[in-house]
Amino acid sequence: MDIEKPAITPYLTTRKLNPENQETPIHFLRQTITPTEYFFIRNHFEYPLQTQEAFFLPIAGEAMRPTIFTYQDIIRMPSKHLTLPLECSGNNRAFFDPKVYGEQWEDGAISQGLWKGVPLKDLLALIGLKSTSLEVVFEAYDYGKRKDLAGKFHFTRSLPIQKALHPDTLIAYELNGKPIPYKHGYPLRLIVPQWYAMASIKWLKRIVVIDHHFKGPYQEIDYNYFPYKDNDLGKTPVTQINVNSVIQQPVNRSILDNGKHIIEGFAWTGTGVIIEVEVTTDGGESWHKANLVQEQSPLYSWTFWKYVWKVPNKGEYLIMSRAKDSFGHIQPFKAMWNRKGYGYNGVYTVKVKVE
Fold this sequence. Notes:
Pfam families: Mo-co_dimer, Oxidored_molyb. By secondary structure, the chain is mainly β. It has two domains: about 220 residues, Alpha-Beta Complex (Sulfite Oxidase, Chain A, domain 2), CATH 3.90.420; about 110 residues, Sandwich (Immunoglobulin-like). The chain has four helices and 23 strands. The chain has a five-stranded mixed β-sheet with strand order 4-3-12-7-8. Strands 5, 6, 9, 10 and 11 form a five-stranded antiparallel β-sheet that branches. The longest helix has 8 residues. The radius of gyration is 22 Å and the shape is globular.
């Protein structure tokens, strides 16, 4: 009797179960669109209990016509599709030196989806913004306790009015052609292109337009760069994604045979588009341009790249990749250290041995 060979598939990498935090197996996926079952999961709290209220989205505050939009109202409005990555701002936190506290994400807290939704600016146009509007606050249904403050808090953040009115800031209701899965924010979530994923709030409960700066703990305490360990000097908010790249293959500490190998991965940025990726196989002494898979890097989307490496001799090699975007930003050798471990984008490094 013939026995069918089992299917070999990658798995998510678990960082925590409660709240659930899982990494995408990025080294083994070559799709432009990350399959939904492999999308990374980042939660601050347990999953919220959903009721019928989740299908109503109130928008109030500095508005001439405060309105409660229904889910049906939103999905009937003119929509758009965007292909873009969501990256946790703590992605690669485990690679900081000196080490920092927090979820020890490696390189899989990033995934790319095809999102469908309604531009937020269209909803804000319907309610009529007052001239005093400064920020737009988004409150999620998920909530819980913090270790540093008394009481319970909903996950709540704001966007400056200019970013809220960007034509590609969406109230999304589909991921990869289907309703957004519950774990990723069903029925409605915010999608903010080119910003780290803490801005793309899941399980939207309500939106409030305000005439002042929002001071919630997920705005003022978390998601800020603190350059110093013992004081808050130089504090700046985490916003745009830093230019970055990853080597998908070979993986770190691989043992390779002599000959020819393909070094491959992808690159992404929060400003402009990727225009160049360079690779070094000698620890940075010489750099070589990789081939970008796309002739023109699409706006928002990550860009795949490849480099053919002809191994000269047996031995140990230090391989690195660095990306450059159209605004001139280049991956640095060393990421900007900050005590909460956000925005890591040091040159991607793998060590291999050729036998």
